[in-house]
Amino acid sequence: MKAKKGQVRVITGNAVGAYGAMVCRPEVVAAYPITPQSEIAELLSQFKADGVLDAEYVEVEGENSAMNVVLAASIAGARVFTATSSYGLVFMYDALQETSGFRAPVVMVNANRETPGIHAVSSGQQDMISARDTGWVQIVVENDQEILDQTIMAYRLAEDYDIQLPVMVNYDGFYLSYLAEAVEIPNIEDVDEFLAPLKQQPERQKLVPGVSIGCGTHGMEMGYVEARYKHCMALERVKNKVDEIDKAFGDYFGRSYGGQIEEYRTEGAEIIVLASGSAAGTVRTVVDTKREEGVKVGMVKLRLFRPFPAERLIKALKGKKAIGVIDRSLCFGWKYGPICMELKTLAVNIGAIPILSYIDGLANLDINVPHIERVIDEVNAAAQGKPYQEVTWIPMEE
User: Fold this and answer.
1) Domains of the chain (ranges, CATH numbers)
2) What average pLDDT score do residues 353-361 get?
């Protein structure tokens, strides 16, 4: 059975985030406005006022409170939603860890933006990177349609009985948050059908008055170790589950994204550009141009950032001659970008090939066609045995 054609509207990425939440019927929403995410909080409030969203909308005084509200509601058994960005994500940092430690299936969208240290109201993935060890599942999307589709898939993942972990859907702030594109908004009844398998699973543990439950209790010795072990094992199960859910979504709605990673023209490719987020679209265009010029290049788009999709990446990259990794963030204390640093841990499985790190797109700077052409040219030269620079800060060398 296939879903019916949904309504197509030209809306911003933020509006897409709000619609993505609304069609999943959350019962409790708490969000605090922050640039560039504010439109999501505003629209969900408007949906509530118009009667389109049948949910308890909690007005909070900050992001930390927002996460604590949805955490408590989730533990009580409700489907919940929140959204944030940058300073807001940092402000809720302790609650992020509480939420994952409680194994609460919270879904949140994060409009990527540079974080505190140097005040920057501008795009960058540093906020996502700063939260990578909080125990959340993290997914990075490329365009407006993927924001909506991935939000729906996030509920099917987070609330799966074998997973029960919070999921963060990341998209590039200022690029996608304010970009208006044509997006198909599925019928709520079709989303209900896609999420229906969750109702057939065993009921998850939740707070019931008068019934004892251990949430947020002090972990001691082996009890703590066991809880952490089970959390890590659940994250490992996420990998295959993401692929399964993506396939099910494609079969039903007619759109799919490759699951953990997307491979583009990797068959027959000798070199690969690894990218994430909105930059992947530009990379895809340049790959096509370079292919026409005879350069055997392909792209791998990283969608699942946490857990890191090691097995899928090894399979996609093994046998290639060189790889260029574009990072829109920094890994303080390491010279490589964060995604490149993690990819290098797989070098023993991929092979002893050049892996070049490129830092680009910080603080609203574009990752443009000339930049990607440079990446491909340099990676191609490295594949042919020519000297190369391990780390390149592209804006500093223009």
Assistant:
1) 7-253 (3.40.50.970), 261-397 (3.40.50.920)
2) 97
